Prior knowledge:
Elements: H1 10-26, E1 45-50, H2 66-75, E2 80-82, E3 89-91, E4 94-99, E5 105-110, H3 124-136, H4 151-155, E6 167-171, E7 174-178, H5 186-189, H6 202-208, E8 224-230, E9 233-238, E10 252-257, H7 261-269, E11 275-276, E12 293-299, E13 302-308, H8 318-326, H9 330-333, E14 342-344, H10 365-374, E15 386-390, H11 397-411, E16 415-419, H12 422-431, E17 436-442, H13 448-452, H14 469-478, H15 483-500, E18 503-516, E19 519-520, E20 536-537
Helix pairs in contact: 8-10, 14-15
Amino acid sequence: MNTAPRVPWWTVFAMTGAGVFMLALFLGPRNDLAVLPRPVADRDVLRVAYVQQLTPDPHVWTFPLPVNNQFILSLWEPLIECDPENGQPQAAAAVSWRWSEDRLSLELRLRADGRWCNGEPVTAHDFVRGWRRLIRQNLDCAAVLFPVKNAEAIHRGELADTSALGVEAVDDFTLRIQLNAVRSTFVAELADPLLVPLHATTAAVLENKPYRTAPGTLITNGAFRLVQAKAEGYRLALSPHYRDRNTILLSGVEFIRADGAAMARLLVAVGRADLANPPAIGAPAGLPTARCVTEETEMAMSVVSLDLNVARGPLRDVRVRRALALAMNRAGSIAEADADRLVPAYSWVPDMPGRPGLPLMHEDEAEARRLLAEAGYPGGKGFPVLILPVNQRRPNFGYLQVWTERWYRVLGVRTYLAFDPPEKHKLRYTRGEFDVMQGGLMATVPDAGDLLGLFAHPERFDAPHWANPEITRLMAEANRRSGLERLALLERIERSVMEDVPTIPMIFERRRTLLGVEVAGWYADPLGRQAFKRLAITPVEHGEFHAGGPP
């Protein structure tokens, strides 16, 4: 995924940063910073400090981090929302839906009262327009549409006509979607922030960016509309035409660009922001302020792994792959600074609502040495050096060092961490000239099958050059089932994959959100898609906003 370049933000934001540091230096000790009173104009405005680049283009982002999701979902509304408690789809821009008898065609009925922020009705044609734009983007995230008929062929250039995409407007308020195969999670997948509609004017506005000086040119259908776009952040106001505007307690949302996570944390500490996600390292108790701040955590639907090239050298032997997995010390490898954020992964799917994680892997140094010796490499003798290409854009180099050093200390297996320029890194990958590759996956729906579905598509899980037709069959069967039957099939898939060890899951992530006590209505969401329209800014003491100490 890539993102559009932004105007440098630091020139404008420098004054804000300087002001915070002046507070730190001159207004009191580091543990007693003065807390800024909330401006009257921001009484009902949620203020969010962010570090990553943000763009209002729903089809341009670097990674689906919570702040990206929250920003897009404040401006845009997809067809469906997911209940964070159970992952079940709920009506959003669509009010109802029904499957064909063969479950290969889905018809959704749009709300008659759905409106763009300029008052025009949201129609099925707007969703067709948005999805056709997405599938033309040269982005990996366009794979969210691959279950739709002809989507993958269009994205790969095998079909030039985007009108062949299996989505059509039957009439202004009926959208029909044709699928390649039965997919029981597809309705929930429609909640993805990528799958929003586009107004007839929006594609040109997103390309040319006139919204930077004229925010009203960006027409969106979410609860909020853009009213300011500057280098230091964005300001949103409640859309006057949103269908549920009378139930929303916020008058707006401000996204404030911070120079790093430490600055985002300080902005919350001194009352300039109400929310930071992700916050900097450190517990709320360590904030240099008297402001009352809480921290909320949630398990993310993602996994970081070491993928093994099962078509290469000793890694063809499952005993070798199991030895490498058994030799790990996941908990011991997690740095103290990351202990509140990272969780050892002993399965491919983390804990999630309605489906606890399965303890499928364990660690056993003695058994790891025995298996490697049984495979013909006692103490690592005669074992070739493993090649692990390193993507210099990823921040996990320190963990790769720790994990591969573990293989050497326990098994005598050496690893070469290959720092290559991007072109060579890609070439090494496509040619299969590696033994281990850092991998991982982030789910797009709160369903275990979304993470496990990777193994049913060897053309996508191609780093290990591993395929198992039985897994593909079981996943197809799971996609025809629901409830306990589906969960049982998904467990069979996960157990089978972990037993064959084409990949070694290493860490899960627990997201942390720093919140000022004034923020009400926050809820956990395994995909980090909290809808700000559900939140409120509330008084904390006698009808007044707290601005100087705990209530």
